[in-house]
Amino acid sequence: MFRRFFSRFGLLAALALPLGFAASSCTDKDGNPLLFSLEDDIALGDQVAAETDSTYRAQGKLVERASNARAYQLLDAVVNRVLNSSDIQHRNDFAWDVKIIKEDSTQNAFATPGGHIYVFTGLIKYLDDESQLAGVLGHEIAHADRRHTSRQLQNQYGIQLLLSVALGNSESTAAQIASGLAGLGSLKFSRDFENEADQYSVIYLNGPGYYACDGAAGFFIKAQSQGQASPPEFLSTHPNPDNRIQAIQTKATELNCRNRTVNSSDLRELQRLL
């Protein structure tokens, strides 16, 4: 209750500030203010996650933890290894819970503001090794942790409408945001946000020392090599993999974490369970 009240106060206070003050306190590289506080991220993410859960549960596609404990144990292990990086700013602020959506035709993952993570079974079954899964998850965690998602949503929807969503007063917009994050709508991150998420994916995977930290590049390489008429949905919201592959590999080489060998038997078990 306190967190919800404080979240509402945070947004209302930000809206009441003169624009110059807000811009000076939290801006992107172009000087655009981010009016959301961390508490606002949490409130908005909670609303979007609730709408996402409701939508996929109604379709019978939300994989429930109670009936799939082992699958979640395996996936949680990957997420927790990525989150073990000391470079994650909001490790103790955001939810960082993960849920599986049973949709084999969709090769995607996304994270809401406040760190609610969703992974489609189509992505899990598409990948060749666990480093690739960790790389994609690291990329999505970076979007939430670096607060790219909040900035992008603010630019697309405007602060007043997001305020309404955060306060639970606009289910239709929450559903629209959830659809956009899932790759079914029009939410696309800027090139700068994509590049930063790629770089932090490498950094996050390097922290625990477990994965080949260019795992995200492996996903992009596979998607390119297959030349599918309908590429993975991940690429609809995360386009232009060409230069990104090289940038990810360059960062991994710089950190000397590119050639680690990881046992992917847990990923194979997870794929069988789903």
TrEMBL record:
Entry's family note: Belongs to the peptidase M48 family.
Q: For this UniProt record, give its keywords in alphabetical order, as a comma-separated list.
A: Hydrolase, Metal-binding, Metalloprotease, Protease, Signal, Zinc
Annotated Peptidase M48 domain ranges read 75-250
Q: Per the annotation, how and in what number is the cofactor bound? A: Binds 1 zinc ion per subunit.
**PANTHER family of this UniProt entry?**
METALLOENDOPEPTIDASE OMA1, METALLOENDOPEPTIDASE OMA1, MITOCHONDRIAL
- Which organism encodes this protein? Hymenobacter edaphi
Q: Which PROSITE patterns match?
A: PROKAR_LIPOPROTEIN (PS51257)
Show the Gene3D superfamilies listed in the entry: Metalloproteases ('zincins'), catalytic domain
Q: Which superkingdom is the protein from?
A: Bacteria
Instruction: Note the Pfam families from the entry.
Output: Peptidase_M48 (PF01435)
Secretion signal span: 1-22
Q: Which GO terms describe its biological process?
A: proteolysis involved in protein catabolic process
Q: Tell me one GO molecular function of this protein.
A: metalloendopeptidase activity
* Gene Ontology cellular component list: membrane
Instruction: State what protein this is by name.
Output: Peptidase M48
